Structures are given as structure tokens and as C-alpha cells.
Amino acid sequence: MAGIAVPIILQMLLTNGLSFVDTMMIGRLGEVEVAAVGLANQMFFLVFLCFFGITSGTGIFIAQFWGDNDEKGIHRVVGLSLVSTLTFALPFAAASFFFPASLMRLFTPDPAVIELGVQYLRIIAPSYIFSGVSFSFAMALRSIEKPRIPLEATAVSMVLNTVLNLLLIFGLFFFPRLGVRGAAIATSISRGVELIVILILIFKRKLPVAASVREYLDFGAVLAKKFFMTAGPVLLNEIAWSLGMVMYKLVFARMGTEVVAAANITESIQGLFFVFLIGTGNTAAIMIGKKIGQGKPGEATIYARHFLVQGVLLGLVLGILMSATAPAVVLLLKMKPETIALVRLTLIALGLLIPVKSFNLHMIVGVLRSGGDTKFSFLTELIGVWGIGVPLALVTGLIWHLSLPAVYLLVGIEEVFKLVVTGWRMRSGRWINDLTRKDIEEYPVLEPTVPTVP
Predict the structure, then answer these.
(1) pTM of the model
(2) pLDDT for 181-201, tens place per residue?
(3) How does DSSP classify residue 436?
(4) Rounded to the nearest 10 degrees, what angle do helices 127-143 and 42-67 cross at?
(5) What long-range pairs does 68-72 form, CB within 8 A, spacing at least 24?
(6) Which one-letter DSSP state was computed for residue 332?
(7) Percentage of the chain surpassing pLDDT 70?
(8) Alpha-carbon distance 161 to 186, whole Å?
(9) Dihedral through CA 359, CA 11, CA 134, CA 229, nearest 10?
(10) What 3-state class would DSSP assign to 229?
């Protein structure tokens, strides 16, 4: 587990650390700049989650094909992933470049925020295409237990982005002071370089995911149908979830510029803690999927139980750390005292929710998806976010006018719902599906040999 999880965690830590550094740098420009970049990045957030949905489906297949030693199957699934991610990246990039003002007006009526957001979106738009290709190869590499390649590419990207941010946001040395535009230029360049590094390392080292264009596109109708039947619900899951997160951000934006600025900062900080959960959750999917591909459902079930227990324990530790360090973290901010106080209280509130979120992340991303049980995951997420979370956000934020920490805590009821429902699904044993074999669709539940998860 450590051999796979640590490089993934380090990569995600670098990625989220970069987001945190960006937010802190832009935060020194003011609340309007933070709000503008945060809202403009909702477009990348949406396309990012489309990428995540597609590549999560990719990872399910590749992990099982890897366990079955089917290299041609890996190439074909990578090809399906590339075609799918580019299908989403191109229209998102076009919308951000040609209609940035219309997009910004969906999130805020503040003309100052809209003006800065337009500048940011037009520059950042091409990076969606770079990221789509990078995501596809990064997930493929993780699924064949080669997570160090994406880590190395991200490290190069982070160093470059940080240097360019310093030069272009603040105008150091002989560079112009570009503010928000400088942040967008730095991000676009670094994402392009990250893609180049990944491709060079893959093909120079002749890794199992390396193939010709013809081999990538050699997927037949049968595999494509199976892929989209499995990956489709994952994509719909991520779209439904991401649109729900956008709805939360719309609520926060209408609660005030200071509130949405505080939400952007707290979510960036929370991302630094969540990298550990994402790393172990993805590792669970890889290891469990590999066991299913090897035809060992019993071991896959035991792995799933251990990962869920570890996830809850890790969530408890991270939640305590985030709540305890909140007073120190806000000292880095150069904002209004009211905004700083709001950030501190919101971090404490989010820290209380992390253990439950950790269980759900490991269950949905690591366990259910690795077993191909994507339709059930999608329905659970859909009901949780849109049936419980979004209505609660609208009522508590816009009708009851509660504070941001209170809104977050009440919206967290959706996480409790998902914990109960997915726990029942896990115990039923109907989540295990071998996608590499046509004659086996479901395995029975293993008789308990280790303590079950409550």
C-alpha cells in the first residue's frame, strides 16, 4: 500500500500545495481578486471532475487488466480515456475563451469580480486540454503501479508555477506586475510543461501504457460499450457531485464576497489534508481492482475492509490536525479581520466532518468503483448531494442566513446518509464485478474473517 500511496499522496500534496500557494499569493492582492480567481476556477473544477470521472472509470479497467496481464487491453482503455477527456476539454476551453463574461455572471453580480474573472478565464482556457491528456496518462500509470512518473512531472510543474507566480503576479525583477493575469499565465505554462514531462518519461522508458496512436484507437465496440457502461455512471457521479459543489459556491457568493473568499481559502487548505485520503482511496481502488482481475474476490473483500478501517482512523487524525492548526494558518492571510475569523471557524467545522468524508471517499472511490459497482455509487451520490446537501445549503444559507461554518456542518448530513447506505452495500457483497471476464459478472460475499466495519 505504501509503495503506491506515498507517490500519489506526494503528487496530490504538490498539486494542492500549489493551489494553496496560488490562493495565498492572490490573497495578498485582496478579497476581490481571491473571489474572482476562485469563481473563475469553477470552470476548471467542473472539467477536472469530468476528467476525474472518466479516468476513475479508466482506472477500474486498467487495474483489472493489469492483474490479468492484458497489455493490449490497457492500451485500448487508455485510448478510450484520451478520446473521452478531450471530448470534454475542448468545449470547456472554447466556452472559457469565447464567453468568459457570461460564465462569470452565472456566479456573481459583482462587476469588479467579473472583470478580473474574465481576464483569468481567457488565459487559462488552453490548459484544460493539457490537463485532460495528463489526467488520462497519470491514472493509467497509477493503475499499473507506476505512480512515481506523475509525481516527477507534477514536481517540475509546481516549481515552474511557483517561480512564474512570483515573477508575474507581483512583478519581481524586470517582469511586469500582472496580478490575476500573471497567475493564469503561470498556471497555463506549468500545465503544458507537466504534460510534456509525462509523455517523455512514458515513451522514453517504454512503460506498459506506451503505444502507438493506432493501438490506442484499436478499441472495439464491445470494449467501448463495457467501458462506458461502467465509466458512464462514474462520470455522471462526478458531474452531479461537481454541479452540487458549484451550487454551494453560488450560495456562498450570494452570502457575500467575504463569505465566498473565506470558502475558497478554507477549501484550498482542506485540500492539503485531503491529499492523504485521496492517495489511500486511489490505492485501495488499484489494489482491490488488481485482486478482482486476478480472480481473487475473497482477498479483495479483506482488502476493502482494511482500507475502510484505515480510512476512518486517518480521517480522525487529519480532522483533529486541521481544527487544531486553524488559528495558526489564518496568520498567513492579509485580509479583513472578519474574513480571517470566518476562515478560522470554518476550518474547525470542516475538521469535524473529515472522518465521515474519509469513510465515504474510501468506500465510493476505493471499494465500490474498483468492483465495478458504479451505478449504485452514482445513485447514492446523486441522492446525497441533490436530495439532501443542496436543499440544506439553500435553506441554511439564503433563507435562514446562518454563518458559513453552520452551513457546512448542516450540509454534512448528506455524508452521514452516504455512510449508512454504502456500508449496507459493502456488506451485501454485490459490489464485486470482474470486468475482464465475460462469463463472470458477480462474486458472492466472503464469509467474515476479520472484524467488519460498523
Answers:
(1) 0.74
(2) 888 899 899 999 999 999 999
(3) T
(4) 30
(5) 68/293, 68/294, 68/436, 70/436, 71/208, 72/215, 72/218
(6) G
(7) 93
(8) 5
(9) -20
(10) helix
